């Protein structure tokens, strides 16, 4: 059994298409596509759109995607151009760490953050 | 703005009620209760039951619970008595780190693991 990689990332000052911070359909389509292309079967996905906060910007979104014994989670704050992103793929039957890193890279490239804090945690 | 606490835990050799490893309704009820009691509003929850693997035991479950800009994720492997648990509460408007630790403790007490690997990650 391989160790499983969980990447937790905070993306700051995102300068990609703003719709990735605010539009559920846009983010969902892209992320599901990445996960499927990597060869994973999606068990379920759930996205939620928040109303605008006390400022004038459009509200953020939260999404979770469930893959067998694995998950992705996205939380966006358009008013700060900020995103939390989690991707965790279980490596029980095969080593999925490179796929995990690839999806992180693809996801990040949508948002074009000017700064990233990324943590890799190895789990059983 | 406070830092937000994300706890990632691997629970080994779980000796609590076996139903927490295999029964969606049992786990869902308990976890939603903990989250509500802590004062959080649940946006969505999604659970999935896996069929038994190549051995004779009942299949595991995967569940995600979405709370505003926060999430919990659970993956169980009954055949190994093993559980991955994630709890992340955004502390944007108030410091939720103690609630995060409390929910981890409550969750863990259901499973009675003989060994825990727990990582605390502070995020923006």
TrEMBL record, chains A, B:
GO MF: adenosylmethionine decarboxylase activity
One GO CC annotation: cytosol
Cofactor: pyruvate
Protein name per its UniProtKB record: Adenosylmethionine decarboxylase
UniProt KW keywords: Autocatalytic cleavage, Decarboxylase, Lyase, Polyamine biosynthesis, Pyruvate, Schiff base, Spermidine biosynthesis, Zymogen
Presence of keyword Signal: no
GO biological process: spermidine biosynthetic process
